[in-house]
Amino acid sequence: MAANTDRRRINAPSGGTSAPVFAKPVKAPGYLQSLRPNRTRGPNELRKTCKQTNSIRTVLQTGVVPSASGSAYLEVPTTTASSQSSLIPPTSSLKIAASIQGPKPLPRSAPFSPTLVLTTTVKFAPFATRYRRGYIRDSAERDLGVHLEAALRGVIIGERWPKSGLEVVITILEGDEDAWWGDDKAEGGAGSGWGLLNVLAGCITVASAAIMDASIDCVDMVAGGVAAITADGQKVLEPCPAEHQDLVAACAVGYLASRDEITELWLKGEVGADPDELIEGATHAAMGSVSVLREVLLESMGTKTKVANEVSKRKLEDVEMTG
Amino acid sequence: MAATTAAAAPQDSAHAPALTFPRPIFAAVAPHPFLQAHLAASQPSKTPLRANSRTAHDFRRVGINTGSLTHCNGSAVVRLGNTSAVCGVRAEILHEAHVQGTADFAPSTGNEAEEDPEREREEIESLRLLVPNVELSTGSTPQHIPGNAPSSFAQTLITRVQSLLLSTSLVRLSDLRILYTPPSNLDDPDVEPVPQLKGYWVLYIDIFYISIDGNAFDAAWVAILAALKNSVIPHAFWDEDLETILCSDVPSEAHPLTLRGLPIPSTFAVFEGKRDWNETGEEEEADWVLSDPDAFEESVCRESVCVVVDCTGGNKGTKDGILKRLEKSGGGVVERDAMKGLVKRAVDRWAEVEKATNAKS
């Protein structure tokens, strides 16, 4: 493990540690299956709308990092209620924070760039997934960063900021899983990567909200959406991989709703003869995020004008400072 | 928001041009005079306010939210004004076979009544059973951009956190040990079976800053405290058939961590006013000790003091505190008498934070 040699952090015991193994699933095979979560919403039902009570709804909030030029936080709750009889969490929710630094001048050593230089960093927190992650970025995180960059590059009008750089930093505090943990173990832990698609869609949505918050010129709002096909050919929107045992293909898009364009498309698995249907499903899911984004945009505009008013009022009251 | 004028500016010289700026520009161009102008309020009737409209002794309110992360044994989100941190505590098992050099830590006898914090600390430290880490490069400040190695600030911060964790003996070793008592010997039923040490729980304590606006240390520590208080460790046992450590997933069998006391840090920044401003005037107090500095104040203050107190030991509430740690660096303004005042302020702060940690957990 690379973390063992990192002298700038506090390291784990050199002998290595292992995640706890729970006794009941090992000893009683039937018990394991009883924990399996199932999809409780319809195939076309989005996660956000499944529970209307305020406490378990999608949360999208801008302005969580005051020192950054723009920031947002997204929380998509899990649809499976955590059971009271077991300490093993059935599914995870999605919790992502995004922060935008810039646009700011590029360092002197950087070569000339006529457009905005976009840098995206996606990092999972060590506690984001069922298995502990390290502090050094791994390939999945770099992969997500590249996909996110592709999704954002298509919307930002980069020509307006020559010789400038923009940092988009995404922190995943809790991410979706690739499969149900019980299956995962049976297959030898080889995740098929379905969870990454959900994470990518969340990253696109939250980054879009943060870019809005930073007031960076865009052609449209980009929103993420996911759709998947199960083994029996059914199309499901916003799948929670833990709830499905038999996903064969999935697709995540970065979708511009008012222009009806796609800036990012990530397709995985055996799509079959007609991939268009799957892509269309993903754009439908993205439409759900668009409506949330619109709400947030209006809200943040409202608070911004209110703050601006207050500041100008205060200016009148202020005695000027001399120095 | 009380705005103040710099009264100390020489008024008599008529030809001295008095520059005037709007607030944000004044703060950016001349941060030091800006803060001094705030603190040296002209009207004696009003308490001088800092630029963030707190008085010098005001701390920011602590907001704590616990148990929001699914994959953690315990977690907390702490807000301290614009500073916010997420802390997740995760327990993993260190098998006895993988322990390196346990020979000197033979499992103590079943009699856990006499706990020796000093011995426990040594054992926890040498086996690295507590693994705290921080991550600042989350876009939380413009100074910490991801892609770089942990900055010296991050390294200092985590070293301070770790040394406080160890020196206060916050976590009990008995909570981390996984013992196994073999069934009594059939041939010799009189001999009491001796519990064997089969492994340890290792606590990974990860702190992610969402946003930093000064006083990162206090936020990190309160987040750790709240997360540890919130932590539940599953019941672990040695399975003879499988020859491994298994856990029970029944919540009622799991045990919470019982912490030793509740040490709470209070950080102060010392703002040294420029004395030469007041050439003709009488000697006036020109230094201020600011509680809970924000990022702007940290940038203009050199000296900082951190006082860690714990008032849980005594039965007289906050009147009976124990000083756990004093850290001071950067200058010599705070001397012995001033330090006494700071400790008093830290004790008052303890009561505030203690209330916040108990309210939510």
What would you say this structure looks like, in words?
Helices cover 29% and strands 23% of the residues of chain A. Chain A is an alpha+beta fold. In chain A, the strands form two sheets. In chain A, strands 1-2-3-5-4 form a five-stranded mixed β-sheet. In chain B, strands 2, 3, 4, 5, 6 and 7 form a six-stranded mixed β-sheet that branches. Chain B is elongated. The two termini of chain B are 35 Å apart. Mean pLDDT of chain B is 82; it is low at 1-14. The chains are: A alpha+beta (323), B alpha+beta (361). Chains A and B meet through helix 1, strand 3, strand 4, strand 5 and helix 6 of A and strand 1, helix 2, strand 4, strand 5 and helix 4 of B.
Write a short abstract of this structure.
Chain A is an alpha+beta fold. Chain A has helices spanning 23-27, 29-34, 139-153, 181-186, 194-213, 275-317; strands at 59-62, 70-76, 94-105, 117-124, 164-174, 222-230, 235-237, 247-256, 261-269, 321-322. The model of chain A is unreliable at 49-55 and 186-190 (pLDDT under 50).
Can you tag this structure with a few keywords?
heterodimer; A: 323 residues; alpha+beta; 5-stranded mixed sheet; 4-stranded antiparallel sheet; 6 helices; 10 strands; 29% helix; B: 361 residues; 6-stranded mixed sheet; 8 helices; 15 strands; elongated; disordered N terminus; RNA binding (chain A); ExoRNase_PH_dom2_sf (chain A); exosome (chain A); nucleus (chain A)
